Amino acid sequence: MAGFHHVELWVSDIESARSDWGWLLRRVGFDLESTWPQGESWAAGGAYLTLTTSPNTVGAEHDRRRPGLNHLAFHGGSAAEVDAIMADAPAAGWMPLYQERYPHAGGPQHYAGWLENAAGFKVEVVATGTSFVAEMNQHAGISSSL
């Protein structure tokens, strides 16, 4: 029973989210499962991610520095696949973060890229090969800087 069933992200602009999130989710292996005027759901590995608008949102901006979601981390495949995603990301609306430390901003054993979209959502694209324990230890030591 371990693992996520789903994650629901509320966005202020669903059309922008369809574009930039759709590009990213396809690149990391998600498939579009359903759409409706206010949202869409993407599935992979038995879980799904929903992007949706709601009349109940408070404010129009996401701020990853406030309590709540800081970032989502996705399996990105091989190091070469992560490199390709990072190279293509700006054209798809995702700006690289921590470029001066790429691909080891998370530490020497952690190969990943970080991206942020115009709405302020941050994602991490992680190459295969980082062990879960090593990754958790490294995140614990760097969480305030990333």
What does this structure look like?
Residues 3-128 form the VOC domain. Pfam families: Glyoxalase_4. InterPro entries: Fosfomycin_Res_Enzymes (IPR051332), Glyas_Bleomycin-R_OHBP_Dase (IPR029068), VOC_core (IPR037523). The strands form 2 sheets. Strands 1-4-3-2 form a 4-stranded mixed beta sheet, covered by helices on one side. A 4-stranded mixed beta sheet has the order 5-8-7-6. With 146 residues, the protein is of the alpha/beta class. The chain has 3 helices and 8 strands; from the N terminus they run E-H-E-E-E-E-H-E-E-E-H. Helix content is 24%, strand content 32%. It is globular, with a radius of gyration of 15 Å. The chain starts with 5 loop residues before the first strand and ends with a helix.
| First-residue to last-residue Cα separation | 30 Å
State which percent range the strand residues make up.
25-35%
Overall mean pLDDT score?
A: 89
Cα-based radius of gyration, to the nearest Å: 15 Å
SS element count, helices: 3
Helix content: 10-25%
What profile does the largest beta sheet have?
4 strands, mixed
State the order of secondary-structure elements, H for helix, E for strand: EHEEEEHEEEH
Quickly give the structural class: alpha/beta
**3D shape:** globular
Low-confidence stretches: none
**Topology, number of strands:** 8
Give me the side-by-side strand order of the main sheet.
1-4-3-2
